[in-house]
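User: I'll paste a sequence; please echo it back and then give the predicted structure.

Assistant: Echoing your sequence first, then the prediction.
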Amino acid sequence: MTKMNAVSDEVLERHHVLVATDTPFQRRARLLQALWREERKLPIGERRPGVPLGSRLPKDYAKESGANLMTPAALATARREVQAMRAGSGQKIDEDRLWANLLSSQPLAFSLFAELSVDLDLATRVLGRLWPDRIAKATKIGFEYSPGRSSPKYTADRTAFDVYVEHTSPFGGRGFIGIEVKYHEALTDAPAEHRPRYDEVTKAMGCFKPDLVAGLRRKPVEQIWRDHMLAGSMLLASSEWETGLYVFLYPEDNEPCRAAVQLYREYLSDGGTFDAVSLERVTEAIEAETDASWIRDVRRRYLAWEKIGALTGD
């Protein structure tokens, strides 16, 4: 973790990113995105008509330019997935967040993993660094993936993984990893409507402490639980998988996410299908396997906290 001074309202106002409801981490992350936009001389968007917001791009410009996506592969993949959604794939992609919201974790997911999706050899090396006991070869990477939205075979809702990896294991079987990507989120959204299927999957997974399961219905762990259940339901529904894993990915300085992960682990009696990994660790794994400029650009955009330090005296 990085210990940093608080960002003053004056600094935030100067860059048009003072939002009263932001957490301390969100203040820093929003400012960092505004600095990235300013460095590239990208136009500023609006919070509402006539009120600029430094962490946004103008909607029409953003959609046409694709400036919120960091690589050609990320942009091409995002446009393909949006087209698939419009054609009825069942995917849920918020186009405003994708194209115009610089803080959104959705473009981050594409920018971080799209290059791996078109270079599975690189993906194999990177994922092998992160999960060496699981990965022999990455065979597929997809986005906003569910095996069956609203299907009672799985979680009977529309939960999906931001990033989905299929791979072979060192033992010759098939496995998958479903990844939820977070950036600025504080996990304060209201829990989804509870479904009886959740109770069935939770019990069948056998990895939760029975006397604590009622707490899983509450924020900040409820979304983590639903995503984890999707992975569990896939393992329960088919014998084709030797292994399956749900991964929660977030910046290490995002304290609400870090605290939620710590709390969630307390509900588990067996953590074999759950993992959490920092954005820093994933970025380092990619940088260890390629010297391509795109991953350095991703790091400078999302993790260059020293830019904030220069403004706050850290």
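Residues 9-312 form one domain. Residues 24-39 form the longest helix (16 residues).
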